[in-house]
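Chapter review: from sequence to fold.
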Amino acid sequence: MKTIIAKVHFNPIAVAVSAAIGVTSSLQAVAVDKGSQPGDSSSEAVILQEVMVYGTKQSTAQAAQDVAGQVGAFDAAQLEARQVVSIEDLAFSNPNANLSGFGTYPTVASFFIRGQGIASSIPSIDPSVGVFVDGIYKGVTYGVVTDTFDLESVEVHKGPQGVLFGRNVSAGAVLLRSARPDGKFGAKAKTGMEVGGEESQYTTAFSVQGSLVEDSLAAKLSVYHKDDGGYFKSNLTGDALGENRTQVERATLVYTPDDRVDLTLIYEHGTTDGDGLVSPEIEAQDARNHGDTSNSDQNYTGLSDNEWSQVTFESGFDLGGGRITNILGYHELDSMSRADPDTRSLDIITSSNLLQHQVSNELRYNVSPNEQWDLTIGGYYFQQTFRLYADMNAFGNVTAGGGLQEQKTKGLFVNNVYALTDFLTLSAGIRYTREDKKVKVWPRTPTSGCSVVPGGGKGYCENNRPFTSDAWSNVAPKLGLQWQLKEDSKLYAHWSRAYRSGMYNMRTPVSGPPRATDVEETNSIEIGLKSTVLDGRLRLNAALFQNQIEGFVIEAMYQDPITEFPVQDFLNAGDATVNGFEFDATYMVNENLVLNAGLGLLDGEYDNVSANLDGSIDADTGLAETFAGPEDEDLVIKYMTERTATVGISYEIAIADAGSLTARADYSYRSKAPYSDSNRTWFPSYKQANLGLSYRPVEGDWRINFYAKNLMDRTVVGGVVPVIGHYASPMKKGRRLGLEFIYEI
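The token string follows.
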């Protein structure tokens, strides 16, 4: 029998909180009212349970079905039912949304909603989908795709969110909210094993909560550990690839001295360390030409090491008939990645080291001047600094580069919801944002002034270059109407605008002052329906939308005709229009059987193109040609997945007096999409089938979950990168079988 020892690192705050909970809870233990807690065997409780969301920034959370917009929302019970370990496990759970990692450097997010997003490991490229953890915006996409645990909810808000969230949410926003203690004693432990590849994966997690001061101060400690031995195998060395270890600790304090005041302090520390990119060799340009999900021809495992800390202090108190909410946050990240991009026995290694820290504060006031009017007024401040060092060692020749960026963002916003009649509601909001960026960029050349670290590592660049700076100011409005058809059904329509930041390229091969892109602007019109009928047994949501994108920013990637290495550049490619439709439904056939389905359709095209997209290179600059031809306007927009669909079923079986067994199955489809702007490389169409079984006894505080993911063993790729006559294509895991044991009191 294999002995597994989880090496758990405790910080002083976590130890103190844990000890206090243990002592106090032993004196004040009370039974937990589980209600519809994770592990409820009722299909209705888990799948049709209403999820409360916080993305509307009201004084209290709203039910997802009451929001006048499309929101994919999952509570703790639903996340467990789907065996969600990473946010990537929800990649295909929403029509017209793809929440995947980039792949070349693990933990880097590549999120797309309604055809807009990014696929890049350059930290200075700002996303179209903003990610917020406990109300704190993640300033870079590094460190976003990590394991999640002990969450209260995940929210996916689709469409521009410029009024409430500011910049870099022109496609949508993803919100993760950690579970808060309620003052009652409770404990939960989970252990699991997953097999299917070269080596197995083991996870352990526990949480304990209780009251430090009765009726006023609650505390919680959560710890998570994963040890993944590596799913893939190197054909050249025989070693396992994809090894990863993750360790996260989170301590939470909630102070509620009375009904008017609540203070929440959350501290999280986490580390991941493991292998880097895993990819087979692809001789053709098309990722559809390979199908092996378990083997690779690379001879170097690479690495991906990350350490982060985040502190969130959220305070709320009643004032003048309204409520003030303040969210102060600090986040820091140290990320080191190394990869074998040739994925063969060639001597080519790339390294990237990112050091980032940020501080932000949002202050808002919610008040109802009268019975018809809800008013939200707020201000926002964000400041971050990050330093990138990147090098490439190709056959012993090292080129190194990177950059330093400092930025500040300030915003003021107001949002109104006004009931014109008993059935017609007007919403109107506006946000002013100013953003300042200062950068120093060192081109990745032998003479860049950056240190060369033998074997790759944490290098640095000399701080002897002048700053280049720029500033942008914009106004983002939103106007909408909501018509209440009946108590549980509504139609809505709104127009909104959002912006994506101007940005600098920190991986440029060109010397000279860096240049910033212009700001990208998205204007969106959406008409939708949200309805619950048949006495709550059928839930229907649908939307038609059109996004008009001006100054569409892309990361153009070409292959240098001389070196055959990738060349990357940021461009305002032109203007584009994306039309779309999405639909999802959940139907409880009876108290045991629940069906669900979703469909997303997209049709996107360039209206005009101001930059060359078909791959031509300027011999003098090494960058894309500045001219564009008629053939460029006929290209399919990169990453535009025209069709996404999912169907699922959940069935609960009572086993006499032994308990209940719930079976779940789902099937998802994603159509092919171009990976390159030139349409020379494509993601394959993708089909995925998953299965889950959960058993819970009539008596007892434990349950067992079994799951099978990617039953069809389909290859999932994270990109297609040209490297010396062939193409690297980062792979995701194939078929996986897992078993979890959970004990909760």
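Two observations follow directly from the output. Confidence is low (pLDDT under 50) at residues 1-45. The radius of gyration is 25 Å.
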